[in-house]
């Protein structure tokens, strides 16, 4: 794709599946949810790369490659009645590198939180 961002990849996948459904004129046709796009970006990618026994799950013995995200910055509006699913979908829809607080690669922290928030 045109971007290295998994946020962009997930957004584009969901939008494309909705466009296909709308073009077909079938409101009952299944489309890709953000939960499914997230799975494909994580576990699905590990399976595609034949690394499913090493990556893509929080499981003992697996490599810990992970991002810790923060939805509470200026690019996402959060409301008191937002459910965890609402916050997750907002992160998938509006998230970018500003929302990445920590990065872990093979269990090592390689990015720490910035002291100054944007």
**Overall form:** globular
What's the tally of helices?
Answer: 4
**Which residues sit in consecutive blocks of at least 5 with pLDDT less than 50?**
none
Order of helices and strands: HHHEHEE
| Radius of gyration, CA atoms, in whole angstroms | 16 Å
Please describe the topology of this protein.
Blueprint: H1 6-24, H2 34-41, H3 43-48, E1 66-69, H4 84-94, E2 100-105, E3 108-111
Antiparallel strand pairs: 1-2, 2-3
Helix pairs in contact: 1-2, 1-4
Structural description of this entry:
It contains 4 helices and 3 strands, in the order H-H-H-E-H-E-E. The protein is of the alpha+beta class and 118 residues long. The protein has a 3-stranded antiparallel β-sheet with strand order 1-2-3, with no helix packed on it. Helix 1 (6-24) crosses helix 2 (34-41) and helix 1 packs across helix 4. The longest helix is centred in the first third of the chain and has 19 residues, at 6-24. The two termini are 27 Å apart. 5% of the residues are buried.
